[in-house]
Amino acid sequence: MRRKLAAGNWKMNGLSGSLGEAVALAATHSAPGVDILLCPPTTLLDRMADAVHGSKVAVGGQDCHPAVSGAHTGDISAEMLADAGASYVILGHSERRADHGESDALIRAKTEAALAAGLVAVVCVGETEAQRDAGETLAVVGAQLAGSLPDDGVTGDSVVVAYEPVWAIGTGRVPTLEQIAEVHDSLRAALNARYGAAAEGIRLLYGGSVKPGNAAEIFATSNVDGALVGGASLTAADFSAIIAALEAAPAA
Ligand SMILES: O=C(CO)COP(=O)(O)O
């Protein structure tokens, strides 16, 4: 059985004062059946890790460089994230694929670096609206999955996959439950085919306009093991409600 995971991606949001939301989340949430993750901007990472230390809340980065160290101005290595208190890192988010031209090959190299540093890699895939309209969704996310994951070291303890349709991110639009199930079933089958028994524990998260009001039905959908939440993870109240919905959901 896979452990459920509620992951919050703060993106480029949050100053020092926002740490109170993480502290409130850590203080109020016990949710024994759910792993909880917050990925703040890098500037808050070590302070957030200190602030939630000893609670259920893990912290993670939002990106890393494939190299361990070196002449890469402005970049952060996986080892540095781990050193700052991270245990996870989000990789291949569509905003990075779009804003920074990240390719599947680069994301694969970053995933290898994350695994080498002992971080859990949360690898994101998702189609644009044009790709969905063209009937290419399964081909697009399948190719992203195949290209973004390494051959070795991929298990339920090292990798999480997040399906985030680009057109659902920050828009308030959500795919139908049938559309979510179709993609998650296909990702699950692809992971099983490539990694065999090692794939069994790999969590599949849905992301894109997850809110307290729609979380329960999404979590009841086939092969959904949790969520990668953007806007609604910025406040402890909203994220707590999503965590509670995940706790109450039947196991995938
Ligand atoms: O991109 C996302 C999480 O990584 C989803 O963002 P929203 O929940 O704000 O749509």
UniProtKB/TrEMBL annotation:
Q: Where does substrate bind?
A: 9-11, 170, 209, 230-231
Q: What is the gene called?
A: tpiA
What is stated as this protein's family in its record? Belongs to the triosephosphate isomerase family.
Q: Which UniProt keywords apply?
A: Cytoplasm, Gluconeogenesis, Glycolysis, Isomerase
* Native source species: Rhodovulum sulfidophilum (Rhodobacter sulfidophilus)
Q: Which named protein is this? A: Triosephosphate isomerase
Task: Report the SUPFAM superfamilies cross-referenced here.
Answer: Triosephosphate isomerase (TIM) (SSF51351)
The EC number(s) attached to this protein equal: 5.3.1.1
Fetch the Pfam families from UniProt. Answer: TIM
Q: Which reaction does it catalyse?
A: D-glyceraldehyde 3-phosphate = dihydroxyacetone phosphate; L-erythrulose 1-phosphate = D-erythrulose 4-phosphate
